[in-house]
Specification:
It is a single chain. This protein is mostly helical. The chain contains 5 helices and no strands.
């Protein structure tokens, strides 16, 4: 009898491990799909508004600001307004918006400006991007809360 209980316990543990793996794979899959969509949107923005290598990277700054504004709105909506599907946050927040915002390009843009002997512009861009990104996220959160309060339950 004791052996049967141990075997049942081992089977249950194996089943639980499989379920965890499937959940993780599902999450990774939705992040990948969202990231591909967000990256395509970012690429489209860069194609529509290209920036010369020595010019101030307004497009990257704009994309990052818009993405941070949207994440501010999104997080308020899914945490304070309704209960979201468990895969919505990884899909949209991590995937789409993670692929859309482009802080790696931000770093490359800083390096390009420095190499083009525009260290002042690089330093300004370094600081402005952080301030604008944080402000955009805060504006998105505050504006969303205000809209929700004025609309009522």
């Amino acid at each position: 009898m004791a052996t049967a209980a141990v075997e049942a316990s081992a089977l249950e543990q194996a089943r639980q491990r499989r379920e965890v793996r499937v959940r993780h794979l599902r999450t990774l899959a939705v992040i990948a799909v969202g990231g591909a969509l967000g990256s395509c949107a970012r690429y489209a923005a860069g194609s529509l508004w290209p920036t010369d290598k020595a010019a101030f990277p307004w497009t990257t700054l704009g994309v990052n600001a818009v993405g941070c504004l949207i994440i501010g709105v999104f997080l308020v909506v899914i945490t304070e307004v309704f209960t979201a599907h468990p895969l919505l946050r990884p899909f949209f927040g991590t995937g789409v918006l993670g692929g859309f915002t482009t802080f790696s390009t931000y770093c490359v843009d800083i390096e390009r400006l420095v190499r083009a002997d525009r260290a002042g512009a690089a330093l300004a861009y370094l600081a402005v991007t952080v301030v604008v990104a944080l402000a955009a996220a805060k504006i998105g959160m505050v504006a969303t809360r205000r809209i929700l309060v004025t609309r009522g339950p």
